[in-house]
Amino acid sequence: MGSRVEILNDGGYRSDGRRQFELRDIAIDLSRHGQADGSAMYTQGLTEVLVTVFGPREAKLRSQTIHNRANINVEVNIAAFSTGERRKRSRGDKRILELGAAIKSTFEPVIQTHLYPRSQIDIFVQVLQQDGGLLSAAINATTLALITAGIPLFDYVCAVSSGVHSTHAMLDLTTLEENDVPHLTVAVMPRTGKITLVTLETRLHSDRFEEVFRIACEAGKVLHEEMRNAIKARTSALARAMGEGHPAGAPSNREGDEDFEMGDD
Amino acid sequence: MLSKSEKSYIRTSLLSEPPLRADGRSLLDFRGVAVELGVTALANGSARVRIGGDAGSESGGGGVCGTEVLVAVKVEVEDVSGSVDGGKGRMACNVSCSPAAYPSLTMLQLDDFQSDLTSILDTTLGCSSLCPTNLSIIPRKKAWLLHVDALVLADDGNVYDALFLAAAAALHDTRIPRTRPIEYRPNNARSQASADASDDPMDGASGLDTHAMPKATDFELMDYWDEGEPLVCPNGMSWPICVTLNLVPPLFYLDATTVEEDATLTRLLLLYSFSTNSSNTRLQGMRLLGHGEVEANLIKPLIREGEKHAKHLNQSLFAKLKSELTKRIPQIVPSTKRNK
Q1: What distance lies between CA A72 and its chain's CA centroid?
Q2: How far is it, in rounded angstroms, from Cα A244 to Cα B2?
Q3: What are the pLDDT digits (tens) for A110-151?
């Protein structure tokens, strides 16, 4: 599909005013959701994903249990109104199955499944809005949700999409850019520097690959910092609430009344 | 699922004097309701409604989480030249549930429940008496099709009330793009029509007839400072509001939590719409859910009671929507001044 918009103009700006390596706004909401054990709402630009995690728990189907490790079950649901043009995707849709399989294979080596034999971890991915970088947003949200659920991981998984426009690498593409530019999604484990996922659906010249890949890995480290801050803020709020003897989830902005210590905590 | 003794415990405490509920509410108390408009940027109108729960706590481990429903409205141009009802546009509703909202249901059960919710929303809102009057683009040719998509994100009881509240709020938030009909008249220099609109030789022939009614063949979107005009509900009525009466004979209570719903045999859904000056009330729908039965002579007083509570709910929703929409105006006005 040919575009009438300039992907990268002479001044080095993209169609939405970003620089080549600039990421979009990221918002992370880790508040509780429904009866889930862990959940995360991850917003990157206009892409919005809600991931809820249940488990480890007993599998609903006996046949799904694995005798020496936990089974990871990923269900993806894309809201009909999430794209520019309304489209209802059923659960068996190829695109949805593929997305679910990608998330599952990304997290299989990261979750310490051997700790929970014969159990199941359910990951429900709900896509509320999409504007490029759907897989990377889903992976980041899943990492955060798994952490809030208290499921032991070897490391964070930070994913980002990147593409090449002629010779210029770009990060975090929007739908508009994804339609025009060869792009790949990379998921990194920042502490060890390992890669758990690389997907490339379009053609890319092999000379360009290394540069794009390297930049995506670096961006993963930046995202890691962002995600770690969110997790730290939540955990310290929880710890503070426990210290104050309030039920977790009570308003945590109580700097003023620290001198009223409750007797028994 | 609750055990038999838990159910009877809940039922006896509801029937005791004074009635007792686990969260300390009285029988006719609602939990806190939060409404947020314009939550999805890619839709023409959207709203998120949350009943109960401690919304806004950032620390996250709250004890109760509440019911959360998101509704988005998207408009689409539909060709209505072949339709029998005059082609005034229509509304199509669809409800889907996140599996996270019902962790105990299997996928098949979830599909069943989704189609239950879809059918009640679609039969109520899709009713021709509630079809907005400004959906027509070109009479008998093109009209807007409203897709009302609801998403149940979390269920802690009373999902029907939340669903209809969210749908009403989203429809209030919806803006229909402004359009202008354009036509093609080959021999008429005065016409402001663009020639590429239609190259049909049939239209060229009718263009010669100057006495014929001007026939619009296509339309264009008008460039205007706001996103469009709000939907106009026919006869000045409001969008339907649902009130669920949970029946524990001889009394009923409102806004049940999941646990209370499990312990209640019968639920009566009543759907009302009100005229804007609240002088006129219409019953839009009624459903009896559950296993139990209700004595026929009880229905009339129940409908009257339900009307009272629905009216109250409608008024609070309306006040909230009004304050939300006026909050937006100051944001819009300065930017238009700058443009001019």
Answers
A1: 16
A2: 34
A3: 999 999 999 999 999 999 999 999 999 999 999 999 999 999
> Which class for B121: exposed (0-12), middle (13-18), buried (19 or more C-beta within 10 A)?
buried
Mutate to test the interface with B, among A24, A35, A73 (most CBs of B within 10 A): A35
Cα separation, B147 vs B44, in Å, equals: 10
**Is residue B100 left, alpha or beta, with left meaning phi > 0 and alpha meaning psi from -120 to 50?**
alpha
CA angle A182, A104, A146 (to 5 degrees): 110
Q: What is the ipTM of this complex?
A: 0.83
Residues composing chain A: 265
Asked whether the predicted pLDDT for residue B23 surpasses 50, the reply is: yes
B59, A52: Cβ pair inside 8 Å?
A: no
User: Residue A126: CB partners within 8 Å, gap ≥ 6?
Assistant: A49, A50, A51, A52, A77, A79, B98, B100, B151, B153
The yes/no answer on whether domain B13-185+217-327 falls in CATH 3.90.230.10 is no
Q: Is the dihedral of CA B105, A34, B120, B127 positive or negative?
A: negative
Residues contacting B329, CB < 8 A, separation 6+: none
A129 inside 8 A of chain B by CB: yes
pLDDT class of B330 with cuts at 50, 70, 90:
low
- DSSP, residue by residue, B278-292: SS-EEEEEEEEEES-
Is-contact A40 A101, C-beta < 8 A? no
Domain ranges of chain B: 13-185+217-327
Kindly report the pTM of this predicted structure.
0.85
Q: CB-CB: which of A35, A82, A84 is closest to B103?
A: A35
**Chain-wide mean pLDDT for chain A?**
88
Interface probe, candidates A43, A49, A81, chain B, greatest B C-beta count within 10 A: A81
Q: How many CB atoms lie within 10 A of CB B71?
A: 32
CA B43 to the chain's CA centroid: 14
Answer whether B67's CB lies under 8 Å from B116's CB. Answer: no
Record: contact B42-A250, CB cut-off 8 A: no
Contact at 8 Å (CB) between A25 and A44?
A: yes
Residue in A closest to B48 by C-alpha: A128
| Binding-face residues of A in 62-81 toward B, CB within 8 A | 75, 77, 79-81
Dihedral angle of Cα B68, A127, A189, A20, to the nearest 10 degrees: -120
CA distance A96 to A90: 8
Q: What are phi and psi of A78, to 5 degrees?
A: -105, 120
How far, in Å, CA of A173 to CA of A212, rounded? 13
Q: At what angle do helices A134-148 and A206-244 cross, to 10 degrees?
A: 30
Residue of A nearest to B51 (CA): A34
Helix (H, G, I), strand (E, B) or coil at A124: strand
Restricting to A residues 226-265, those with a Cβ less than 8 Å away from any Cβ of B are 233-234, 237-238, 240-241, 247-252
> In this predicted model, what pLDDT tens digit does every residue of B72-103 receive, in sequence order?
999 999 888 877 777 788 899 999 999 989 98
Terminal CA-CA length for chain B: 62
A26-262: CATH topology: Ribosomal Protein S5; domain 2 (3.30.230)
Would the CB atoms of A126 and B46 count as touching at under 8 Å? no
Q: Structure tokens of B242?
A: 């649902």
Count of Cβ atoms closer than 10 Å to residue B205 Cβ: 10
Chain B residue closest in CA terms to A92:
B107
